[in-house]
């Protein structure tokens, strides 16, 4: 039983990263052709809400649990959607449009590092500094940060030699009203990559907070299907508001080329099914476990991007990814020595258990 659960969680985590890698490549190509990332995130959320929202609504309606909606549960759903969708995806894809899918995917490797640090300071992760396995965790974290900084330096140097590519990306940034002021602030020729890198890193940090917040509340929502559907719906409303405020209406019109296929794939297989798997893994194995598989998307993207998008793969990118992956799996090895997988998940007090929200509490996944 334990072995089967472990296999399912590993298979689910691998699926999420492979699905995201394909989305990184396709969305990068769509962005360089002028697609607005606001439109992509918005329509992706709409598709995800329809894909998983209808089954979740059926379960709630069949069980007569719509009346169990409380302000407490709505607060959790709103916060999860805000940091995991509105902040994370909009910042991330704005950065992706100004950098490369290899860099953006590799910056995802900051997610397990930040998640680990947050879990440690919030007493969700045990680190015994005087013991060798605790030192290995710290060393693995330093490797991840060092590899990410190495890749940032080399990508920035290489990007300055690719003037034409940046001009195309800067034209994309002009699509939304805040673009002109941002370009004046950072400079068109030299600041675009650094600004994009900053946006990508902010998006990664938001996803880390998304994982940690899930770990605190996921036990109150045994049905990950319904929780992911509610988060997708709330994120859809938030992204609609963001798009109306920050994007030109004409940029929200879908072009009938590759965009509908990209939106459908991302909404169903990445946001819809992917969010459900992520929430299930967080509940069963903790927030650090699911984030430790992020390097898989970097490997796939780094191999496929030069073949499909004719992008330049720099030596710094290869070295940076190697260092990051080595650091992540050094942490995994040290984590396995703990012998206590439950330390990744928060423990609820008796009072908190008694105050669990009734919403979804009896819904089967």
From TrEMBL:
Domain of life where this protein originates: Eukaryota
Protein's UniProt name: WAT1-related protein
Membrane topology: Multi-pass membrane protein
Similarity-based family: Belongs to the drug/metabolite transporter (DMT) superfamily. Plant drug/metabolite exporter (P-DME) (TC 2.A.7.4) family.
Subcellular location field: Membrane
Region (Disordered): 342-365
Statement: the UniProt record of this protein carries the keyword Transmembrane helix: yes
Keywords from the named record: Membrane, Transmembrane, Transmembrane helix
UniProt cross-references to InterPro entries, sorted A to Z: EamA_dom (IPR000620), WAT1-related (IPR030184)
GO CC annotation: membrane
Gene Ontology molecular function: transmembrane transporter activity
Species in which this protein is naturally found: Zingiber officinale
First-listed, main subcellular location of the protein, grouped into a coarse class: membrane
Pfam family, one: EamA
Membrane-spanning parts: 12-31, 37-61, 73-94, 106-124, 136-154, 193-213, 225-246, 262-282, 289-309, 315-334
Domain EamA per the UniProt entry, residue ranges: 11-152, 195-332
